[in-house]
Amino acid sequence: MNVRVFASEPEAAAACAALVAAAIREKPSLVLGLPTGRTPLNVYRELVALHQRGQVDFSRVTTFNLDEFLGLAPDDPSSYRAYMERHFFQHINLAPERIHFFDGSAERAERECVRYDLKLLEAGGLDLLLLGIGPNGHVAFIEPGDSLQAGSHRARLSRESRLAVASLFGDDVWKVPLAALTLGMAGMLQARRVILLAFGVSKAAAVTAMLRGPITPMCPASFLQLHGNVEVWLDAESGRGVDGSR
Ligand code: PGA
Question: How far apart are CA 242 and CA 204, in angstroms?
Answer without folding.
Answer: 9
